[in-house]
Amino acid sequence: MASSPLFNSFLPKPTTAAPSPPSTSLSFSAKYVPFTAITSSSDSSPTAESYSLDEIVYRSRTGGLLDVQHDMAALKQFDGQYWRSLFDSRVGKTTWPYGSGVWSKKEWVLPEISDDDIVSAFEGNTNLFWAERFGKVHLDVYDLWVKHCGISHTGSFKDLGMTVLVSQVNRLRKMKRPLVGVGCASTGDTSAALSAYCAAANIPSIVFLPANKISMAQLVQPIANGAFVLSIDTDFDGCMKLIRQVTSELPIYLANSLNSLRLEGQKTAAIEILQQFDWEVPDWVIVPGGNLGNIYAFYKGFNMCQELGLVDRIPRLVCAQAANANPLYLYYKSGWQEFQPVRASTTFASAIQIGDPVSIDRAVFALKNSNGIVEEATEEELMDAMALADSTGMFICPHTGVALTALTKLRKSGIIGPTDRTVVVSTAHGLKFTQSKIDYHSRQIKDMSCRLANPPVQVKSDFGAVMDVLKNYLDSRAS
Ligand SMILES: Cc1ncc(COP(=O)(O)O)c(C=O)c1O
Ligand SMILES: N[C@@H](CCOP(=O)(O)O)C(=O)O
């Protein structure tokens, strides 16, 4: 384990006075089952094919997706009120590992892992921000909230899933499983999270990045955290194919969301939203989608809360895609006829420039079961939405601009009403995407009017000149 003060919070902490976990915690368990067992079962009867979470397996026997299935009967020994109180009692504490927004829900995430194996930066517990001015002034909505998942250790929601995956790898390595490292393909955020958590636990990380397609701030993260970084002359989908081939040949553990362990951490953001609303259910939750693991993770988190009696319904989900990388949108618009991967074009929402999402089946299931909607945003729409949100005090990433565009469209069409409680999920920190904001505000984007650009005013070092400029500005504000 690292001993640097930087990673102090990653280290197991002595237990201080804190609420006790359920005395039966050791009886909770989870296993991998084929995703089809989740989608087709109307009851919780055991499926023939299942795997221990200590096995290294990403696909079912038929090549389909897997899912982590919890022993719901064991969890149901406790009622909704019990779980609500337990989770609430852990917020804002330092007791290891419950101070993490993910591990505060440990019984629902990885119930069997030892606390000593957990690698955590106390991720989660992110700000649920009341976007009062943006909502009221620009959209005529009064109950609009932005869940800032990007205000996090590595600046994106990926930390939520990565703490789970790297903790499990840490456990497997202690069990002497022959894993030489952990690898991922990435549009930037997954690699940043993977490399930070691996560095904290002294596990080698290997990342495949599409050359020249991610932001400089994202690129520098795995470099700084000591990952082995391959910049490959292809797009994300090409990198994804390569890492899948490599991880089937070498004992490198796959860290992309194809690995269903990741989604167990990501689903806690949904539980946290309910918790932050005092267990009142919002009407809408809007999530930007790329590889499409996260939309399913949100569904799973909400669905578990309903099934275990913490709430009595789930929100309607909206998945928002960039029009330049919109295979899910096209599929939805076709009435779910036939899925066709696309070749994703360049988008300012570069982290979702994905044409062949691995979790397409998971996303469709989540949307169908939440009465969901898919929307898309053009480059101009997403950049204007980002600039507008920033002008009301936020500093969001372009992906959040995609989600806000979806909200704007659904509000304009009346599908989202003025008093509907709506949560937009902000997936990464705006500081990772400053170049897109610089391009916009300096009106340097071809074929885009950048109508909300706010470039600095060049002025001579002269009192009169400064006063003239200021008077003009103040007059324009007054009018
Ligand atoms: C900032 C950001 N937003 C949204 C997404 C989309 O998440 P998912 O791939 O789970 O759909 C990603 C990654 O893909 C991302 O990095
Ligand atoms: N946006 C992602 C793309 C990969 O998604 P994953 O959830 O499958 O890891 C990234 O940041 O790399």
Automatic annotation (TrEMBL):
Classification via Gene3D superfamilies: 3.40.50.1100
Recorded GO MF terms: pyridoxal phosphate binding; threonine synthase activity
UniProt entry keywords in alphabetical sequence: Amino-acid biosynthesis, Pyridoxal phosphate, Threonine biosynthesis
Family (UniProt): Belongs to the threonine synthase family.
One biological process term in Gene Ontology: threonine biosynthetic process
EC number: 4.2.3.1
Protein name: threonine synthase
Listed GO CC annotations: chloroplast
Cofactor list: pyridoxal 5'-phosphate
Top EC category: lyase
Gene: LOC113695489
Pfam families with a match to the protein in the record: PALP
